[in-house]
Structure formats: C-alpha cells, structure tokens
Write a structure and sequence with these properties.
The chain has two domains: 3-109; 115-351, Alpha-Beta Complex (Spore Coat Polysaccharide Biosynthesis Protein SpsA, Chain A). The strands form four sheets. Strands 2-1-3-8-5-11-7-6 form an eight-stranded mixed β-sheet, sandwiched between helices. A two-stranded antiparallel sheet has the order 4-12. Strands 9-10 form a two-stranded antiparallel sheet. Helix content is 43%, strand content 18%. The protein has helices at residues 3-40, 56-66, 81-109, 135-147, 166-182, 200-203, 208-215, 237-243, 269-285, 301-311, and strands at 115-121, 153-157, 186-191, 194-196, 223-227, 231-235, 252-260, 264-268, 287-288, 294-295, 315-320, 324-326, 329-331, 336-338. The longest helix is centred in the first third of the chain and has 38 residues, at 3-40. By secondary structure, it is α+β, with helices and mostly antiparallel strands.
Length: 361
C-alpha cells in the first residue's frame, strides 16, 4: 500500500477514536441538559427545597452515552463550558476527518503505474570487473539521447557469481520480486548495455502512455515472455507468415519457438509468478537441456523459459520491429569483448564458436 495512504489510515483511525469519545461526552451532556429541563422545571418557582432523586434508568442512560457516571444538577445550562467544548471539539474532528478522507480518496485515485523499467547493472557492485564502471550512466545517457528525457527506471544491482549465468539469473530474481511488489501490468527488464533502435516504434518506449497504448495494448493474452531484443530467431510457423505482412510503424508480436539473448524483454503480470518460480528452480536445481540432462555447472535461461512456456500452454513472442539492440563491449558472462548485436538479420554468427546459451551478455 502507498505509504501516504497508510499514514492517512492511521491518522483517520486515531481521529475517529477521539471523535467517538467526544461524541459520547457531547451526547451525554446534551442528555443531561434535556433531563435537567424536564426534571427541574417544576421546581423553578422555589416551592420545593430539593429536587427528587435522579431515576436509576436515567443514570444508566447517561453512563452509556457519556462514559461517565454523573448525576444531574439543577444549575446545568446550555452555556455549560463542558458542553461548549465538546461541541467545538467534535465539529473540528469531523472537519479534519472529512479532509483526511478526501485526501485519501484523491491519492487512491491517482494512476497506478501501468509498467516499469528495470535495469540490471554491475556499476558500483563490489569486486565487479572494472569494465562495468560507468555502464549504468551510459545507459541513461543513451536513453536521454534517444528520448530527449531522463529514463524513469528502477535499478537492479547486479549479482556476482563465478558460475556462468547464475549472477544474471539472481539479478533477474531480485528485479522481478521488486516488480511483483509494485503490482505492475508489464515489467520490462534491460541490461545496462541495451540501446533503443532509432525508429518510430522503438521511440514509443520513451513515454509511458505510448508504451501502454501503442506497444503493450496488442500484447497477446497467451504471452509468457515478449522479447524486446535478441538474435538467432527461430520463428513459429505462423510467425514466419506474419512477418511477411508486418509493417514497421507499430509494434506487433511474432511467435517464436526459440531465440538467444535476454538483454531486453517484457513480462506481463499474469506470467510473473510462473517466471519467478522457474528462475528459483533453475537457481536451486539447474536446468534441463535439449537432451533431457540436468545441468548445474551453468544456466541457459532461454531454454528454461521456452520449455516452461510450452509446459504451461503459453507462448514466447518477439516484438516487431525489435526495440533494443546490444551495444559492443565487455561481456560479464563470457569475460571477453563482444561486438554489437542487432538481431535484425537473424545472424547465425553469434551462435558459432561455442558462444551459445547465455548469449550476448
């Protein structure tokens, strides 16, 4: 829950309690005043030296309403200080409660973010390779150059792990758990060396409303993961046919049967828990490769994700045209410098020479 709403709820509870106490005091005082007029009106001429004893039922009623056991007196009047103070306190408390309620309603009606951008970076992580210095800053600078404004991002500190693929997978886990707590409809995860393409559809990512209306509004209901970038695409049959008739002005989605590269992808909320559990299972037990053998020495998340999608009856998609490409530089996974990867031409070269699995990271 929003912190401001929590504070207002607590404040409202306190004021409500105070007002209830004041209400009891006020009603008790009013009841005593009315009873005073009724019981003592016939003694106003001074004929009787003392009033009758207060009825037991009246004492009980006053006790219930005011919370105090008090007897009526013959000098009680509408100008009683306690009655005036009670009226003022109660009216002021009611005004404050109304004001707090209006503020709470306003805050609750404020727009919940539809999506969120999460960027994984080892910049500033202790013992990270020196090549990571300044990479998050470079991501922000490149985004600012493309979009003309600073990115609204959530930074996920990278996790160090000597086992190939484990560090990045643990970083995803932290990102996705953060996103789950934010209750987002769509979670976008980028590595700090992902860069937006210079085209109309990619630049829609610069603006939250455009992402909602022009990018994710057409996201298929059966999406497990939608890749925003990648390479070495293997299209599902209908994906190949669809690609032939796609334009390049609006974001659309092609069904994939496999691909490499996880430097930019989107996860709809309906798939978030399944992906989280898949990642946790990989970290705990490793992944099962194409031969049915469980591997624990390294992780190949693409294989786990495509396999899980088939298992739960969902599909993997790639956005078209692609939104991000991978800038050249040092790969924390492969411990070597990599060339830029666009993925636009389905270049097979990135899968040669044994560089497969956790590719382009």
């Amino acid at each position: 829950m929003n912190l401001k709403l929590m504070v207002l709820n607590v404040l409202g509870t306190i004021l409500g309690t105070i007002s209830w106490v004041q209400y009891r005091i006020l009603v008790g005082n009013l009841f005593r005043l009315i009873s005073h007029k009724i019981l003592y009106s016939r003694f106003s001429d001074g004929a009787t030296a003392s009033p009758p004893k207060q009825p037991r039922q009246l004492t009980i009623m006053v006790t219930i309403l005011s919370g105090k056991r008090k007897k009526l007196s013959n000098n009680y009047s509408i100008f009683s200080p306690s009655l005036i103070v009670s009226v003022l306190l109660l009216s002021s408390s009611i005004s404050i409660i109304c004001y707090v309620t209006l503020i709470a309603m306003h805050l609750s009606q404020q727009k919940q973010p539809y999506d969120g951008i999460f960027v994984i970076s080892l910049q500033g992580t202790p013992n990270a390779d020196p090549h990571n210095e300044g990479r998050l800053d470079d991501f922000k600078k490149a985004w600012r150059k493309s979009c003309g404004s600073d990115p609204e991002i959530n930074v996920c500190p990278g996790v160090m792990d000597d086992r190939r693929g484990y560090g990045l997978t643990r970083s995803w886990l932290n990102c996705l758990q953060m996103a789950r707590n934010m209750n987002l409809e769509v979670t976008m995860i980028f590595e700090d060396d992902a860069r937006l393409f210079d085209n109309v559809s990619s630049l829609n990512f610069c603006d939250a409303e455009k992402r909602k209306g022009k990018v994710f509004s057409d996201l298929p209901e059966d999406t497990f993961i939608a890749f925003l970038g990648g390479h070495t695409w293997t299209y599902a049959d209908q994906g190949v046919q669809k690609k032939e008739r796609l334009g390049s002005q609006h974001s659309q989605y092609l069904e994939m049967s496999f691909s490499y590269g996880t430097y930019g992808f989107a996860v709809p909320r309906r798939s978030l828990d399944t992906l989280l559990n898949t990642i946790k299972d990989d970290l705990a037990h490793g992944f099962i490769n194409e031969d049915g053998v469980r591997q624990t020495e390294f992780l190949s998340p693409e294989k786990s994700w495509y396999g899980k999608a088939r298992e739960v009856g969902k599909k993997m998609y790639a956005i078209h045209p692609l939104a991000v490409w991978h800038e050249s530089g040092f790969s924390n996974t492969w411990k070597i410098d990599r060339e830029s990867i666009t993925g636009e031409d389905d270049d097979e070269s990135d899968s040669e020479g044994g560089i497969r699995g956790v590719a382009a990271r």
